[in-house]
Amino acid sequence: MALKGLDIFKLSPKKNCKECGSPTCMAFCMKVAQGAADISACPYFSEDAKAQLSEATAPPMKSIKIGTGAEEMVLGGETVMERHEKTFVNKTRYADSLCNCMDEATIEAKLAEVPKVDYDRIGERMYAELIYVNYSAEGSYDYVELVKKAAALGRTLVLGCTDVEVAKAALAVCKDSKPVLNGATPANYADMSAVATEAGVVLGVSGADMNEIYDTVKALEGLGNKNLVIDTTGATVKETFANTVQLRKAAIKDGDRTCGYPSIVNLVKVAKDDLHLQAALAAVFTIKYGSIVVMQEITYSEALPLYGLRQNIFTDPQKPMRVEPGIYALNGADENSICLTTVDFALTYFLVSGELERSGVPVNLIISDAGGLSVLTAWAAGKLSSSSIEKFWKEADIEGKIKNRKLIIPGKVAVLKGEIEAKLPGWEVIIAPREAVELVKFLKDMQAN
Ligand code: SF4
Fold this sequence. Notes:
By secondary structure, the protein is of the alpha/beta class. The protein has helices at residues 5-11, 25-34, 47-57, 104-113, 143-151, 164-174, 189-199, 210-222, 237-252, 267-270, 275-287, 300-313, 346-359, 375-380, 386-395, 398-401, 417-423, 439-448; strands spanning 63-66, 73-76, 93-99, 118-121, 124-127, 130-134, 156-160, 180-184, 202-205, 228-231, 263-266, 292-295, 326-330, 338-342, 363-367, 406-409, 428-431.
């Protein structure tokens, strides 16, 4: 919740010494409240006052880091309820799941399946970033062995284990990769917190309902552990949804810091064996506040729509999605392959490159800087013109890199053909169809002739 200048003034030293650059303490405090000055500019605030102020001015939801190296990721840190209010900042992470209650053949099959979903979409790697390793007291497979095998996949683990001794043994073999220990309950939170703190990992908190969870989080905070995530999974889908929304609302709208932690939603618990329902719910909880969403399996059927949705939700709506200008050699294109140019708007790139790849024809896709706008918008704004193409050709040294002198331009800006040929002597400009979907036939026909 935003602090008022007067609240800050009450904690100020009231020396009016001007060392902070403001004429009075009151003026300085007003600036701090507006975000125009930092509290550290005054050397006389007591440590206690600074601690109080940093707590009060901290973001409503904590940013929690998990994983290490290339697999390090941040959960939470959100400041709004709806994406269009500002932007969502830290995307939902999906976890494929394993359990020591599975038989060996199932475990081995799942371990072999996980790496298969791994692809790139508009510059972002799409894969199961997390593996949820569930512990069941009835399970016959050795849990620590399972954790070792899951860790060998190189993904960050979430250990779903409420048994303190088993959790300790599992962390001994994987703590360096900074997994999440999703194991604190009202019954074991103190011991589990000690285990998580000693291992330096994030602790997940669960309970029978939100009241229990709230009390447990409060108690953990009292023990000094604020490196937490909250498992909002309830007994039913409805309860899980209500818990997850309530948590976000309490943190963002009501400023209740005890609720200001990322969430875990375990779909395996609420929709076991119903893979279609899980896929639909994963989409719901991507939009509605799941920081980690656990699924029974993530194959291409689940991944393709889900990761596309996530990419759309977790982009800043105020910034156009762009790809880097440059030459993208598709289907094994080399310097002798034909060229096709379009704008740097990511969706245009994605559609066009997809169709080009589908054609199987080697093409150098040349993306110029068009301000992240679509073809017609860029043309209307003067960002896609014969001059912009000429300029880009020089900057990127296209003629030094490519020997082929045929250039396909978007059908919607066919009007540029003559101007481009005048500015790029020696190039033959060919007009593409107006729709990307027609590119496959167009290129194959060209190749045949
Ligand atoms: Fe007041 Fe601190 Fe500024 Fe001095 S430096 S005027 S004590 S706020």
